[in-house]
Each structure stands twice: as structure tokens, then as C-alpha cells.
Specification:
Layout (H helix, E strand, L loop, with lengths): L7 E6 L1 H4 L2 H13 L6 E4 L7 H12 L6 E5 L16 H24 L4 E5 L18 H19 L2 E3 L2 H14 L15 H14 L5 E8 L5 E4 L1 E8 L5 E7 L8 H6 L9 E7 L5 E6 L2 E7 H6 L1 E2 L7 H35 L7 H15 L4 H12 L2 H18 L5 E7 L1
Parallel strand pairs: 1-2, 1-3, 3-4, 4-5, 6-10
Antiparallel strand pairs: 6-7, 8-9, 9-14, 10-13, 11-12, 11-14
Helix pairs in contact: 2-7, 2-10, 3-4, 4-5, 10-12, 10-13
């Protein structure tokens, strides 16, 4: 099991991390699958970030939160994407790759020095140089990212870090998609940023590597004698009826994974996705049976269907799926706030890179205003300055984060519900 009660997990990376999507789905999973283990997760992603930026974040951004575990994912900006394309100079591509290798080694060492005892390094995701769209194709960039992934694997093995390969499975999934539709992709039109449901795919790949099981809970009731075998749940109050059906009460120990629009979209790429909450019944007479959960009709199933087991995890008749969706909504409210706050850190990193003290308001504003003049209305510096006004209050954000964690862990306990089986 990866998580322990009290864990403080840092997610460190570039805009793919700053987006917060895969972090949110990981937290959905941990909060629903382990309701008695309270953890906190912190997004330290920076739009446009690279490993040197991560090094600059350590003392003022990451270390004060005192994480004991960390996920690190860089590469998409470190690779120097503009150095790629048809006819590109391959020698020039080597510099950024070698810098990445040197800097990533420094970063993980400094994380250890800060007290982070459990480090997971993720390979970069893919640059889709395969999809047939009009966006300029910096061909060869994805091959460079694959090389970075191989280095991360070696670095992890040498130092006892956990390595999770995202690049290879995402490329394989992309190739399967594009075999049917050459314009399909797991990333956006920029060929870089994962689509919303791809963030759930990334979370799934991480959870697979962490050894998490897809099964939420299971019970099998023997209809003839009322004996019940259970896993991660408790059943009681078995009562047969004259028709050949029965009723009982089930108390799961875990919530199912919440169903959402992105969950359904990801199901077309990765199947199954986290969720198996099985009710099974053996020893029934042949025929069809209605199944009710908490007086809500789940459906009609044959005796053979019930003997095989019916998955109720995704059904909104399942009161705990409704509860899980509430957790998801609260969690992603938190994720959106945190992601907006990460955008405000972009300008601070620019200033630190230039050796300008962010607390020197005159020098900082003069430099940032010059950049806005040079880059115009599309300047990300301007976006960051605007976000600063609305989302830049770190003390307020910290208060909101703690309130969100408290709300999630107050409501993530599964509820007991009656199960009825009625012969038709």
C-alpha cells in the first residue's frame, strides 16, 4: 500500500502537473479507497516549468509544506522542443538532454535533503508527433522524451526511487487510437498537454504501478442457507422471503471511485478503471430477479448473472456512488483553486531566474512590465499578474485547502444500505 495516514505528498513539475487533473484523480482514489487514512496533497507544478525551476522552488515553495513523499515529472520543457522538426540539428538537441540529466539528479538529492523519504519519478508524457493535425509538428521531440524516460528509469534504479513509465503506455494507446482515426489523440492541438480525460488515464497508470487493486468490495450470498462471504464489507440481517428472494444489509468499508464525464471518456482508453464493487448470489432457482439497493431499482438479472456477480460500483442506485461523486466535486473545487494559484508562481520563478528579488516591488514590476510590452496581450506574464489578484493570497489558499480536506474527510465514510432480491 502506497499511502499511510498523515502523508503529505508533493507533486512537482511543469504545466501538466500545474493543471492538477491527474493529481485530483489520484486524490479521488485515495480519499474513497482509504477513508480512514487522511492525507494531504500539494500541487507544486509551474506552467512553463523545468527542472531548474524546481530547484529554485525548493526553499520557499516546497520545503515549507514538509512533504514526506513526492512525485516528480519534468521533461516537456527541458527537452527544448523548438530544436526539433524536419531538418533539425541533432547535435544542438544534446545540450538540453544532458542538462536535464544533471539537474534532475540534483533535484532529487535536494528533495531527500529536505526530508522527502519516498520519491517517485514519472517519465515525461508524450509529444504527439504522430497525429495528423495542422499544428506544426516538431518531429523527433517525442523520441527525445523517450530518451529522458530511459534516463529516469536508470536514475531511479541506481538510487532506489520508484519509477513510473507514462510515456510508453501513452504512446501505445495513441497508436491504437490512431489506427482507427489518424486525427485522434490523447493530447490537445498543441501536441503537448493531455486532454482532461487523459489526466485520469495518467492517474490510472500511476495507481497500477503503485499496486492498487481495482476491487472496491465484494460479497457472495448463498441463498439457500444465508451464509455470506465478504471482502472489504460486512453483511448482516439476512432474511429470506417466500418467493425465493431475500434481503440483507451491506456496510462497505470503502467508497467506489466517482463516475464523471471524464471517467466515462477514459473508459474508452483504459478498461476497467478502478471500479469493481461486486454483489453475488449463488444457489438461486432459475429465473430472473429484481435487485434493489436502498429501495432503488438496480435492474433485473438472471440467476446465472447473479452467480457470476454484478458490479454495482458505477450505478447511481448505489448510495455510495452518490457519496463518491460529492467527494469528487469537493476535491476538484480544491484542485481548481490550487491550479489557479500555481499560475501566480510563474512570475516569481521568472524573477528568481533573472536574479531579481521578488520582494523588491519596483524592480520586479519594471522587469515584468517590460516582458508584457514585448509579448503583448498574449503574454503569460500578464495572465500570471491577473491571476495574482484573484488567487495569489497564499494564506487564504492554505485556509481553503485545510477546509476542503476537512470537508472531504468528514464525508468520505461509506454508508450502510439494504439489498433486496425479488424473484420475478
Amino acid at each position: 500500500m502506497y499511502i499511510e495516514d498523515g502523508d503529505r505528498i508533493a507533486f512537482i513539475g511543469d504545466s501538466i502537473t500545474a493543471n492538477g487533473g491527474f493529481i485530483g484523480y489520484l486524490f479521488d482514489f485515495f480519499a474513497t479507497r482509504y477513508p480512514n487514512k487522511r492525507i494531504e496533497g500539494y500541487n507544486f507544478g509551474i506552467p512553463g516549468g523545468s527542472v531548474p525551476w524546481g530547484l529554485r522552488q525548493l526553499d520557499w515553495d516546497i520545503a515549507p509544506k514538509k512533504p514526506n513523499k513526492a512525485f516528480v515529472m519534468y521533461g516537456m520543457n527541458d527537452i527544448g522542443r523548438t530544436l526539433y522538426g524536419v531538418g533539425a540539428d541533432r547535435e544542438k538537441q544534446r545540450g538540453p538532454i544532458e542538462d536535464y540529466k544533471k539537474n534532475l539528479g540534483l533535484l532529487v538529492q535536494e528533495l531527500q535533503d529536505c526530508g522527502v523519504g519516498d520519491i517517485t519519478i514519472l517519465s515525461p508524457t508524450l509529444y504527439d508527433q504522430y497525429v495528423r493535425i495542422e499544428t506544426e509538428n516538431l518531429y523527433g521531440c517525442d523520441d527525445g522524451l523517450a530518451e529522458l524516460g530511459e534516463f529516469v528509469k536508470e536514475l531511479s534504479a541506481e538510487n532506489g526511487f520508484r519509477f513510473i513509465d507514462l510515456h510508453t503506455p501513452l504512446v501505445e494507446m495513441t497508436q491504437r487510437l490512431q489506427a482507427a482515426d489518424p486525427s485522434a489523440s490523447l493530447v490537445g492541438a498543441d501536441r503537448v498537454h493531455p486532454l482532461p480525460h487523459t489526466h485520469l488515464v495518467i492517474a490510472y497508470l500511476i495507481l497500477q504501478r503503485l499496486g492498487e487493486t481495482e476491487e472496491v468490495s465484494r460479497f457472495t450470498c448463498h441463498a439457500k442457507d444465508g451464509t455470506i462471504e465478504t471482502k472489504a464489507c460486512a453483511c448482516s440481517a439476512f432474511k429470506p422471503d417466500h418467493s425465493g428472494g431475500f434481503q440483507l444489509t451491506c456496510q462497505p468499508h470503502r467508497l467506489p471511485f466517482p463516475v464523471s464525464e471524464q471517467y466515462r471518456a477514459a473508459g474508452g482508453v483504459v478498461s476497467p478503471v478502478f471500479n469493481r464493487e461486486i454483489i453475488g448470489v449463488t444457489g438461486l432457482d432459475e429465473g430472473n430477479y429484481r435487485v434493489l439497493l436502498d429501495e432503488n431499482e438496480l435492474g433485473c438479472f438472471s440467476a446465472a448473472d447473479l452467480a457470476d456477480g454484478v458490479n454495482i460500483a458505477e450505478s447511481e442506485c448505489n448510495p455510495n456512488q452518490v457519496r463518491a461523486q460529492y467527494i469528487h466535486a469537493k476535491n476538484f473545487d480544491r484542485i481548481r483553486l490550487e491550479s489557479c494559484n500555481r499560475t501566480t508562481k510563474f512570475n516569481r520563478l521568472l524573477l528568481l531566474r533573472e536574479g531579481i528579488d521578488p520582494e523588491d516591488a519596483d524592480a520586479a514590476n519594471a522587469y515584468l512590465n517590460r516582458l508584457v510590452e514585448q509579448e503583448g496581450e498574449g503574454s503569460f506574464v500578464l495572465v500570471s499578474k491577473r491571476q495574482q489578484k484573484e488567487y495569489g493570497d497564499d494564506l487564504l489558499l492554505a485556509k481553503q485547502m485545510q477546509e476542503s480536506f476537512a470537508e472531504i474527510y468528514h464525508n468520505n465514510r461509506p454508508v450502510r444500505y439494504p439489498v433486496k432480491l425479488i424473484k420475478m
